[in-house]
Amino acid sequence: xxxxxxxxxxxxxxxxxxxxxxxxxxxxxxxxxxxxxxxxxxxxxxxxxxxxxxxxxxxxxxxxxxxxxxxxxxxxxxxxxxxxxxxxxxxxxxxxxxxxxxxxxxxxxxxxxxxxxxxxxxxxxxxxxxxxxxxxxxxxxxxxxxxxxxxxxxxxxxxxxxxxxxxxxxxxxxxxxxxxxxxxxxxxxxxxxxxxxxxxxxxxxxxxxxxxxxxxxxxxxxxxxxxxxxxxxxxxxxxxxxxxxxxxxxxxxxxxxxxxxxxxxxxxxxxxxxxxxxxxxxxxxxxxxxxxxxxxxxxxxxxxxxxxxxxxxxxxxxxxxxxxxxxxxxxxxxxxxxxxxxxxxxxxxxxxxxxxxxxxxxxxxxxxxxxxxxxxxxxxxxxxxxxxxxxxxxxxxxxxxxxxxxxxxxxxxxxxxxxxxxxxxxxxxxxxxxxxxxxx
Amino acid sequence: xxxxxxxxxxxxxxxxxxxxxxxxxxxxxxxxxxxxxxxxxxxxxxxxxxxxxxxxxxxxxxxxxxxxxxxxxxxxxxxxxxxxxxxxxxxxxxxxxxxxxxxxxxxxxxxxxxxxxxxxxxxxxxxxxxxxxxxxxxxxxxxxxxxxxxxxxxxxxxxxxxxxxxxxxxxxxxxxxxxxxxxxxxxxxxxxxxxxxxxxx
Lengths: 440, 201
Description:
The structure holds two protein chains of two kinds.
Chain A: E1 6-8, H1 10-25, H2 31-44, E2 45-47, H3 51-72, H4 81-105, H5 108-132, H6 139-150, H7 153-156, H8 160-181, H9 186-204, H10 209-229, H11 237-256, H12 266-281, H13 285-289, H14 306-329, H15 334-341, H16 343-353, H17 356-380, H18 384-404, H19 409-436
Parallel strand pairs in A: 1-2
Helix pairs in contact in A: 1-2, 3-5, 4-5, 5-6, 5-8, 6-8, 8-9, 8-10, 9-10, 10-11, 11-12, 11-14, 11-16, 14-15, 17-18, 18-19
Chain B: H1 2-33, E1 35-44, E2 47-48, E3 52-59, E4 63-65, H2 68-79, E5 91-97, E6 103-109, E7 118-121, E8 124-130, E9 137-143, E10 149-151, H3 156-166, E11 171-178, E12 181-189, E13 192-193
Antiparallel strand pairs in B: 1-3, 1-11, 2-3, 3-10, 4-9, 5-6, 5-7, 8-9, 11-12, 12-13
């Protein structure tokens, strides 16, 4: 059996151990069981990180690094060139020394704060040199140099803070590069170290908050940058790209974190919420009407081969999606199949039909279908949060449609009353079941 | 394992300091060995999030007439498929002084010149015909030279702009130029040097 070292806070563990010692004293459990339980918890759990300490360390490092940048940006007249040159090296040196002590102390709070400060201080140093020597603005080169020079920090210090700074810089670089040079192929290359870190974290500490936060980071990064980095060769190709990405993310989350639900399964929840948001957007005709003709490239900004670049990215997501569909299908998870796996197929079919009205109508049906699926599966598996999520989807859809169209006040009023009654009935039933202990 | 981490950290610090050193060294060399030129300019005061306030130096006479053989090359940049900013070849800009002692961009070449008094820029575009001003020509390029920012104390930059707004006739930037590099030495407003961290010599 796979043994996972779980994180339980010191306080909770103490409470638990106190309780089992009471049970032993009251002779509910035997001495042998008591020592076995104790041994198990000593071996298989670690006291979780002190979140407050880490939060303060991170905030402190962020504020100090920000303060250093702002103070240096004052452009002190009193310092001459030699003094400023020395000053410009200082942030990097402080960051390095801080990191050295963090490694020595081997504490999470130290490593996180050092990682953030060090990562930002490299940018401060480069900026200060630009300022001292009046270098012309070259934001792209500035961000690229900064990115490359902080890349190893997240690995050396195992710092999520440094990883997040890297993600933020990568995202900014990707957007700026697309804006200034009309390309950002480098994004995929610079993403590789991020993937390596996430895979490493998943393998070494699957359920730790560090891993989960890192997964959220990469999910948000991809959601922003995928659309930016596409070459816009075919109008509306982003629709298919995002559909496959979201479905792939959701299914991968289901596969990797089978037992985790809600926000403790970052990929799955990103995929699930993303699909709903995308479906909701597609219920408006404007989206199909104007799916990207204005961004389409032509003339000197267009090159024939870039269509292969777009196709390559989408193909990669399709392969990922297909593999996860097969992997999930083995489990016969109909819920995932209906709410996650089918979505890109729907989208692709509607994209090919290229009919604004049909697509809009179809997505109203699709969204309603999602809402009903969540409600039905939520009720069947007796999961209150899933059921409510389905209700929210349905009510947002109906609310929007009834605000959109010219239905009479009476019709709208009746629908809302029926909707509200459904909500209440479903909840009352589930609350009753919950009281009986049947609901998760 | 920890030992390796210390070593990697050490290597990283050396790499970071090397990049910083290379940047400093390049500019110091230009400032010490470059020939000084004064370009007439009009400073405007914007702000950079990371680097603070600076005055943007709009160089007067930023157009350069193209020689016959370069016209096709300069115009061709737009007609090539996908020739974008990242693909532009470097332009080499030569400088001369006019009769008043102020510098101007005398000519442009797409091949490295034999003299060492020139600077490189990738920031140029085909400018078409210029029919007014001193540099009239049928085919020109417009450049944004690599000395267009002068960082200043956050209180003094707006003051400078105010002073210039009243009278921008006699402002220039002193630039040191050698071997393709250019470095700003100082900015002069109404003939007076702007107090800055660079006039510490």
